[in-house]
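Fold this sequence, please.
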Amino acid sequence: MSNSKPRNLDALRDLIGRESERLTPRMRDAARYAIDHPNDMALNPVATVAGIAKIAPAAFIRMAKALGFDGYSDLQRLFREPLQHAVKPTFKERIRHFGGEQTLDNPDDPAEVLRAFSQANVVSLEHLQDDAASMPLQEAIALIQNARIVHVLGLRRSYAVAAYLAYALNRVGQPAVQITGLGGAITEQASTAGPQDLLIAISFPPYAADTLQVCEQIRQSGAKRLAITDAFMSPVAKDADLVLEVNDAKLLGFRSLTSAMCLAQTLAMGLAFAKRSKRSKRAGTQPTLAADLQDIDC
C-alpha cells in the first residue's frame, strides 16, 4: 500500500489517515491502537501489545507491512525514538494507568463512584487542556461563523452535547438547529441543509449508524462538515472539512461528557467573542466583550 515508510510519528499518523480505507478492519484497529498508545508500542513486544489491545498479533504485523515497514520491530523503532525526548504518555495511557477503567471495591457506595468518576473527569480535562494549543479552534469558529445555518447532530450519549451546542449557538446569535431524528425523520431533517450551511457531527464509539448516514447525505448536499469525535480515524472524521479530537474518560462502561461539553462551550464562547469583536470593528469602537456577554446566559 505504501512505497516508502514514514520517518516520524506525525508522518505515520498522516499515512494511516490516507491509507485507512485500504486497511482491513483489524489492521485499522491495530493502527488506531498504535497511534493512541505510542509508549506501549515502543516498550513492548508484539505479543504483549496484542494482549493489552485484545487484537491478534498478526494484525499488527500485517498493518506494519502494509504501511511500508519490514515488520513489527521495524515499526517499533519509529515509536522508540520519541522516548529519548521524554514524550508524555497519551491520554488513553494516562486513563489506564490512573485507573479510569478500574473496578470499584464497593460499587454500591455512591460516594466511591462519585470520587472515581470525578477523578476520571479531571484526567479528561487535563488532557483537553494540554491539547488546547494544537486544536484548530479558530478554524472551527470561522466555519461556524460563516455558515448560513449550523445543523448540529449528536445521537445516543452525544445527544446532550449536541442539544447544548445548538442552544448555545442560537444564544450567541448564530442560527442553529438540532437534528434529533425524532419520529424517524432524520433524513428529512438533514435534507434542509444546503451548500451554505454547516453540519457539526458529534459521535464517539460506538458510532451511531444514523450519524454516519447523515454525514454522507450532507457531503452530497455540498454543505461543510465539522466533526467532533475521538480520533482522526473515526468514521465521522472521514471527508470532514475539519476535525476536533476530544476524549472523555470511561468508568465501568459509563463515558464522561465533561471534555466534549467543555469543547462545545468553548466554541460557543469563541463565536460570541468573534461576533462582538467584528461588530465593534465595523462601528469603530473598542469592544467591551466581557460586559457584552453577561446577558447571554449559556
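The radius of gyration is 21 Å. The chain has a mean pLDDT of 84.
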